[in-house]
Every structure is written in C-alpha cells, then in structure tokens.
Design a protein that fits this description.
- By secondary structure, the chain is an alpha/beta fold.
- The protein is 43% helix and 10% strand.
- A five-stranded parallel beta sheet has the order 3-2-1-4-5, covered by helices on one side.
- Strand 4 (167-171), helix 8 (174-182) and strand 5 form a beta-alpha-beta unit.
- Helix 1 (25-37) crosses helix 4 and helix 3 packs across helix 4 (73-87).
- The radius of gyration is 16 Å and the shape is globular.
C-alpha cells in the first residue's frame, strides 16, 4: 500500500532507515535481546519501540542506570551490531516506502538520515539492494545531537543543496517526526509493523 503524501512539490526525500526503509525493527529487537541477555539486562518490547530513534549508547547507559548494572557501553553496542548484521538477511523493505523510492528515484535526490551507524545503514541498504539509490547518507557521528534535534535533517538538506522547506521526510518514530518539524520539513509517518 502506497503511503499517502502531504500536498506539496517536494524537491528531495529524506528517509530514516530502520523501521522506515528497512522493516528491521523486529530484527533489531532480537539483536538487543540477545546482546543484553549476556549481561543480565532486559529491554521490554514496548520500551524498545518507545525509545526508537535514540542512540544505542544512550539506551545502554539508561538501562545500566535503571537496572543497577554496569554494562560496558561500547562492548554491548558492538555485540548488538554483530548480532544485527547476522540477522540482516531476514530483513525486507517496508512496502509502502519502497514504492515511493522506486517511483521517485532519479526524479529527485534522496538522503538517509539515521541515528544508526554508517556501517549499519550501509549494510541494511546493501542487503535490500537499495544503497545506490541514495545520494547522501547522514548517520550517527555525522551530527552532534540526536533526533529530535533538527540538525541531522538540516545537514542532509544542505548536502543535497535543497532548501529544508522543499524536503519531505519519511519517519517511523516520534523523535524523528519532531526533528523534521523542527527543521521546517513536511513529514510522512511510517506506521509500525503491527499497523501495516
């Protein structure tokens, strides 16, 4: 089902990756569960989705604080990434978003704006056969503050040389929608897996 777009003559599309282009959130959750289990930590599924879009290091730090643990942030983050990469072949594209990518490719430029690492985004897009369709990747480490700060979206617009008001954002999280709005961009909410 093609996602309905807001009215407007948009000159660029900016996409979040996980949960927006790649139907990867259930797989990310499995990777989180496996990585955290090794340290005796738990991440309830409702909290995982509520925290969607937050940096991995922040999530681990908050779980340490909430559960009285001292998980080494970088080690747990790296382990979670390894587990996710192993599960990548099971990930598919979000159909309603994929149709927009196919329809608008080569007509207007695309960027990915993600809170995930460049390694993770590149691996996901490559697994889906979509990497070459994106002109710009803005990933964790490319901007100082995470969504809902608008900086990542503004950087993508600058790199594409398209004014922010002419960009349309595809996002699956509240933090992402808030960031797009703060950047002065229209946004399309991509529904979670259980609403598709």
């Amino acid at each position: 089902m093609l996602l309905p777009l807001p009215a407007g003559d948009f000159r660029a599309y900016l996409f979040d990756c996980d949960g927006t282009i790649a139907d990867s959130m259930p797989v990310h959750y499995v990777a989180w569960q496996q990585a955290l289990k090794e340290w005796g930590a738990v991440l309830p599924e409702d909290l995982f989705y509520a925290w969607g879009g937050r940096p991995v290091a922040e999530i681990i730090a908050d779980l340490n604080e909430q559960q009285g643990l001292s998980m080494p942030v970088e080690i747990v983050a790296a382990r979670r990434e390894v587990l996710f990469q192993e599960l990548l072949p099971t990930v598919s594209a979000v159909p309603g978003v994929l149709e927009h990518i196919d329809e608008a490719h080569r007509r207007i430029p695309f960027a990915v704006v993600s809170g995930s690492t460049r390694e993770s985004v590149t691996a996901s897009l490559s697994a889906l056969g979509l990497l070459e369709k994106f002109d710009v990747l803005v990933c964790a480490g490319d901007y100082p503050r995470a969504k809902p700060d608008p900086g990542a979206f503004l950087l993508a617009a600058e790199l594409l040389r398209v004014p922010p008001g002419d960009c349309l954002v595809f996002e699956d999280t509240d933090l992402g929608i808030q960031a797009a709005t703060a950047a002065g961009m229209a946004a399309v909410r991509v529904p979670p897996p259980w609403e598709r």
